[in-house]
Design a protein that fits this description.
alpha+beta; 7-stranded mixed β-sheet; 6 helices; globular
């Protein structure tokens, strides 16, 4: 990923999803072996099944953004480590949005913004849903937690059986185990920032998926459900 480290800046690069993901399976396997982890251990840490991991490593399947985030979290690496060959970062790193590569997919675009120096198990991406995207909204469910912030456009966020409309300046935080989907409303692309983190069983006495103690004025929606498949 292009970034500035101790006064040095990287070169910008662009690509499409096929080119971007062509080496992901190999990098997943390399990262797993470097950490002396079995596929079963990565599966338990990421919530992605062993069969699905095996297909990803072999190149038989390409991961969705959510699955890639979960696998990265399970391996304890940044999403950039799996998307491209890592660069050695300095103690301070700046990622320029005008230089960071963005990738075209089926019904969305995304731009990883977390440098290699970022903390393991945490990923930050800018996601754009075009207003004219042909792909229907799909439900996703995965381990971990997500926070999103709408930059522009109007978005219908569905969590479980409930839906709400988010507008620019609105934010949402939810347990990834809730089935969730995104729909574009109006006549403008939706741009949003998404920060995804690995699942934490208990945080200061609060079970994963529970209501945040500072919940006053927040609208709580959805019910946590058990996984039944992969993204």
């Amino acid at each position: 990923m292009p970034m500035e480290s101790l006064g040095r800046s990287g070169d910008a690069s662009d690509g499409n999803v096929e080119e971007l993901l062509s080496g992901v399976g190999r990098r997943i396997r390399e990262a797993r072996l470097a950490r002396d982890m079995t596929q079963e251990e990565v599966s338990a840490a990421s919530g992605v099944s062993v069969a699905h991991l095996s297909r990803l490593e072999s190149g038989a399947r390409q991961p969705s953004v959510a699955t890639l985030l979960n696998v990265a979290a399970g391996l304890g690496v940044s999403i950039s480590d799996l998307l491209e060959a890592p660069r050695k970062p300095g103690p301070g790193t700046v990622v320029r949005g005008s230089e960071a590569p963005s990738y075209e997919g089926a019904g969305f675009r995304f731009q990883p913004l977390m440098p290699e120096a970022g903390p393991a198990g945490l990923a930050a991406v800018k996601v754009v849903f075009p207003v004219d995207r042909a792909e229907p909204a799909e439900y996703h469910r995965h381990e971990g937690e997500e926070w999103l912030y709408v930059l522009s456009g109007r978005l219908r966020l569905t969590l479980g059986k409930e839906s709400t409309v988010l507008e620019p300046g609105d934010a949402a935080f939810f347990d990834g185990m809730l089935e969730h989907s995104f729909d574009v409303l109006g006549e403008e692309d939706v741009e949003m920032l998404v920060v995804a983190g690995a699942a934490v069983p208990v945080t200061a006495g609060r079970p994963l998926g529970g209501t945040h103690p500072l919940h006053e004025g927040h609208h709580v929606m959805g019910e946590r459900s058990q996984p039944s498949g992969e993204d």
